[in-house]
Amino acid sequence: MSFVNDTILANLPNMSRTEADAAPIGIVQVDDQGAIKLYNKWESEMADVPVTSAEGRNFFTQVAPCTNNRLFFGKFKDGVAQGALDTEFNYTFSYKMKPTNVQIRLYRHPSSRTNWVFVAPRAA
Amino acid sequence: MSHIVSPLDSGLQSPQPNTLEPDTLAGRLWAAGELGPIDDLMTAAVSSLKLSDAELADLRLYAEERSWAIQALAEAFQQPEDEPDLYPTIASFWLELRFDWQRHNEVMNYAATRMTPLPRVVGHGAVSSAILGRLEDLLSPQHRDQLSQHAIHLLEGVLPASYHAANSS
Predict the structure, then answer these.
(1) DSSP for A44-96?
(2) What residues have CB less than 8 Å from B130, skipping those under 6 apart?
(3) Which site among B105, B115, B128, B145 would you substitute to test the A interface, given the most A Cβ atoms closer than 10 Å to its Cβ?
(4) What is the ipTM of this complex?
(5) What is the DSSP letter of A35?
(6) Phi, psi of A76, rounded to the nearest 5 degrees
(7) Whole-angstrom Cα distance, residue A123 to residue B1?
(8) Which of A30-44, A86-100, B100-114, B147-161 has the least mean pLDDT?
């Protein structure tokens, strides 16, 4: 069972910033190149990156450079290229932060063709 | 007379008190290399890792070596007229640490996919990342971005011949 509940997925294209900021997980909307369009409060606090410093910048190469590899960004790029992306995996964030084990879900909403990165903590 | 002691000669004695002007680039670099704050960052970063005493000692040596290197750089370039040379050397050191961290990041995450976690690698990645953050504060945001992008683009397309053979149409 995914850590991202169906209510969040169903609400995605119309999710307001208030709703995103109320979520108990990280929610990041990115465009097809990875530029951040929405960076929610949970993610901002987990990564210690202000929202204003994140939005507009590339998630994979600028804000979270520890994701710039085939395991993470590679999966995203493949999914966008195929027009279908829904994958979950474990990861460890490590750039300028205490090594943090997380669960990741990369998701492309089919009808709106918007891309989402969901993040939740994971026990080691 | 230099009071810097090589870690290879001394068993990592603590450096002499800082005599550099704190508001100069060299003074701020010295402060960035102070072992106390680096040690605190390291302790916080590895607190959840299952490291043996020997592995922790190895990690502390790793941190001390970098602390020494940062402060040796600060002391060597301490004159105001040295700043045009010191700044790009700091940038070079930052790149070196970034590549160090990047390698540890890749190893820890690839190893995790194969269910073979490597806490020692995670520890080294955490320490290099923490020190990277302290050096980063000495560079302008524009230069940090520029260096990061160069570091990424440097390796784009660097793929083995076997990859090209497998992916050629």
Answers:
(1) HHHHT--HHHHTTSBIIIII-GGG-SIIIIIHHHHHHHHT--EEEEEEEE-TT
(2) A96, B38, B41, B42, B45
(3) B105
(4) 0.88
(5) B
(6) -60, -50
(7) 52
(8) B147-161
Of A71, A97, A99, the CB nearest to B122: A99
Q: Cβ–Cβ of B44/A98 closer than 8 Å?
A: yes
Q: How confident is the model at residue B106 (pLDDT cuts 50, 70, 90)?
A: very high
Does A108 have pLDDT greater than 70? yes
Residue of B25 and B42 predicted with greater confidence: B25
Contact B72, B15 (CB under 8 A): no
The number of angstroms, rounded, from the C-alpha of B58 to the middle of its chain's C-alpha atoms is 15
Nearest CB to B112: which of A68, A90, A97?
A90
Inter-chain contacts counted by CB atoms under 8 A, chains A and B: 58
